[in-house]
Amino acid sequence: MSALSLHALPGIPMVMPGDDIAGLIADGLGRAELVPQDGDVVVIAQKIISKSEGRTVKLSDVAPSAEAEELGGQIGKDPRIVQVILGEAVRVVRARPGLMIVEHKLGFVMANAGVDQSNVDGRDGQARVLLLPEDPDGSAQAIRTQLTARYGVHLGVIINDSFGRAWRRGTAGIAIGVAGLPGLVDLRGNPDLFGRILEVSIIGYAD
Predict the structure, then answer these.
(1) For labeling, which of 12, 27, 32, 78 is most exposed (least CB within 10 Å)?
(2) For 116-138, how does the pLDDT look when each residue is reduced to its tens digit (9 = 90+)?
(3) For range 9-14, the mean pLDDT
(4) In 3-state terms, what secondary structure has residue 44?
(5) Is 1 within a domain?
């Protein structure tokens, strides 16, 4: 019988720049008394990766351009945040009050280029935002390499982020970085249950 089990790792601390994510995962596995097996997949929140890689920007260090000032005024958004979003984007797809839909440098079409203030420490009075990792696939591969060396099993690693969906409320988990398993499974050319050849079916396997 096929089965899927999910385990949240206890005791993961607030992550700081330079933290060893593979080590934190190993510590969490130990606390949970879990031993990774071949084929297991470790799913890591994007925010943890970004924090460990120092992808935090202090808004007081941001000088908005004229474009950011104008666009921020039009949509009611802090021009400094608009500037950070523009710096992470290759183009603006759409802008409306409070929201920018952009094409990120990594290729994702997403809200606000993934620039986020939630769960970002600002207790010192300094407003900060967090950016996506620069190379999510590379980050996933580095963590997979460390975990594979530690446990001697074949693991997959997914870096997961929350994306909105067109014409549907609520966010869903999307893989922005993958190692050790396919991001996509292409079924084109295979027969369906009745022998009809599939023409367009590509599964977002990691998602």
Answers:
(1) 32
(2) 999 998 888 899 999 999 999 99
(3) 95
(4) strand
(5) no
11 dihedral zone (left: phi>0; alpha: psi -120 to 50; beta)? left
Nearest to 183 by CA among 165, 157, 162: 157
Distances (CA, A) of 184 to 6, 80, 188, 201, 206: 21, 36, 12, 10, 7
Residues 6+ apart with CB under 8 A from 199: 188
The whole-angstrom separation of Cα 51 and Cα 132 is 9
Mean pLDDT, rounded, of the chain: 96
% the chain with pLDDT above 70: 100
Same domain assignment for residues 91 and 75? yes
Could you list the residue range(s) of the whole structural domain that residue 126 is in?
Answer: 56-130
Q: Which of 130, 151, 184 is the last residue of a domain?
A: 130
Q: Where are the beta strands (DSSP E) in the chain?
A: 41-45, 56-58, 89-96, 99-104, 109-111, 128-130, 156-165, 168-179, 185-186, 202-203
Q: What CATH number is attached to the domain comprising 25? A: 3.30.1330.100
Residues 6+ apart with CB under 8 A from 145: none
Q: Which of these, 202, 127, 112, lies nearest to 162 by C-alpha position?
A: 112
Same domain membership, residue 169 and residue 143:
yes
pLDDT tens for 183-205 read 999 999 999 999 999 999 999 99
pLDDT single digits (tens) 26-53:
999 999 999 999 999 999 999 999 999 9
Would the pTM count as exceeding 0.90? Answer: yes
